[in-house]
Design a protein that fits this description.
This protein is α/β, with parallel strands linked by helices. The chain has 2 domains: 244 residues, P-loop containing nucleotide triphosphate hydrolases (Rossmann fold); 102 residues, ACT domain (Alpha-Beta Plaits). The protein is built from 12 helices and 14 strands. The strands form 3 sheets. Strands 6-7-8-3-9-10 form a 6-stranded mixed β-sheet, with helices on both faces. Strands 2-1-4-5 form a 4-stranded antiparallel β-sheet, with helices on one face. The C terminus is likely disordered. The chain binds adenosine-5'-diphosphate and magnesium ion.
Length: 352
């Protein structure tokens, strides 16, 4: 649906050119919610603005729906902009216009719709974002969440295939954020709109996206399904973003809590496995003791997960690890030694 190939973007500054994006390659598939996460200044807004050509790349190509649009002008550019809606952090509403007037605005500008047609479309859009009762109000009479719903209705007015959301929930409190993210997911599901969601918050990605790319200083440093990137972050920038969402995230790196008497492993349970008492049963069957050193549980979209840093010791640690793996648990050894190495406790028992 969207393909960026070898994209670089430099801005002319007072001290010469500043590289905002370097050699970006990304593909967003039709129908998905694709997240782009990065800290402030990473280049997120520049990247999203390249998709609807509010910025032009210094190098590389932009493809939308199979068409190369890098140099689109005139009618091609207008058609592209109509096929892409945009939602902003600070809503960008017209204060002198009512809610209905704001949503009608892009339709009036397009000059292709009659008055009655516009009124009908606006009513249906306001229905979709649950603001039918607020049509005659002005932006100053609305809460932040309601303003963003107006922003979303306006972005949908021209019937776009793609919705770009640049920090759409960053000005909202956590509860309102949840409601707006639910609305975006509904729009994705019911209207089949492909969504590119830009944020500096890992929680927004975890709740909403199918896949995610991590942007760090203008480069994509990690990319994949949210479950992978969130549960097994590899790049330091990703680790930092996951930790910000979970201040006690010692489970990500062992937190230095290595138990020398046993083998320290990181266990990741996903889906059904997150609810089963697997660990206790497998430990018993293999005559192994376990101690939980750190843990986190939650959901990635609807899928439950549980991740524990565990110390295993006792008779058949290798057997327990093999059984856990066979049961679909992801087991990562934290000491870098092969599975078959006995725990220190076992080794010393053999010596004695
Ligand atoms: N119009 C511009 N002119 C000059 N520099 C810019 C412009 N837009 C963005 N930048 C620079 O590009 C970098 C990336 O900015 P931006 O895309 O806004 O990051 P983010 O949205 O991730 O915070 C920053 O260093 C920023 O100062
Ligand atoms: Mg930005």
């Amino acid at each position: 649906m969207i393909r960026l190939e070898g994209i670089s973007k430099a801005f002319e500054g007072s001290q010469g050119a500043v590289a905002a994006l370097s050699d970006i390659a990304l593909t967003v598939t039709e129908g998905e919610i694709f997240g782009i996460i990065g800290s402030s200044g990473a280049g997120k807004s520049t990247l999203v603005r390249l998709i609807n050509l509010l910025e032009r790349p210094t190098r590389g190509d932009v493809f939308v729906a199979g068409e190369r649009v890098t140099e689109a002008r005139g009618e091609q550019l207008q058609a592209l902009r109509r096929s892409i809606g945009m939602v902003f952090q600070h809503f960008n509403l017209l204060n002198a216009r009512t809610v209905a007037g704001n949503v009608a605005y892009p339709l009036e500008l397009a000059g292709r719709y009659g008055k009655a047609d516009i009124a009908r479309r606006v009513a249906s859009l306001l229905e979709r974002v649950d603001l039918a009762d607020h049509a005659a109000k002005y932006p100053r009479q609305l809460s932040g969440g309601q303003k963003q719903r107006v922003g979303i209705a306006r972005a949908l007015a021209s019937g776009p295939k793609i919705l770009l959301c640049d920090e759409a929930t960053s000005a909202l409190d956590p509860q309102t954020t949840g409601a707006v993210l639910d609305l975006l997911r509904e729009i994705n599901r019911d209207l089949g709109v492909t969504i590119v969601l830009i944020t500096h918050e890992m929680d927004v990605i975890r709740r909403t996206c199918d896949r995610v790319a991590v942007l760090d200083r203008g480069r994509v440093v990690e990319e994949g399904p949210v479950t992978e990137v969130f549960l097994h972050p590899r790049h330091p920038a990703t680790l930092r973003l996951v930790r910000e969402a979970e201040p006690d995230g010692g489970v990500l790196d062992g937190g230095g809590a290595l138990d020398l008497a046993g083998r320290t492993v990181r266990l990741t349970f996903r889906g059904e496995a997150a609810h089963k008492p697997l660990l206790g049963r497998i430990a018993r069957e293999n005559h192994v003791d376990y101690g939980i050193l750190a843990g986190r549980v939650g959901h990635i979209r609807e899928t439950p997960y549980a991740q524990f840093l565990v110390s295993l010791s006792g008779r058949d640690v290798a057997g327990a690890i093999a059984t856990l793996r066979a049961s679909g648990v992801d087991v990562e050894l934290q000491d870098g030694l092969p599975d078959s190495v006995p725990s220190v406790a076992e080794r010393s028992r053999h010596v004695v």
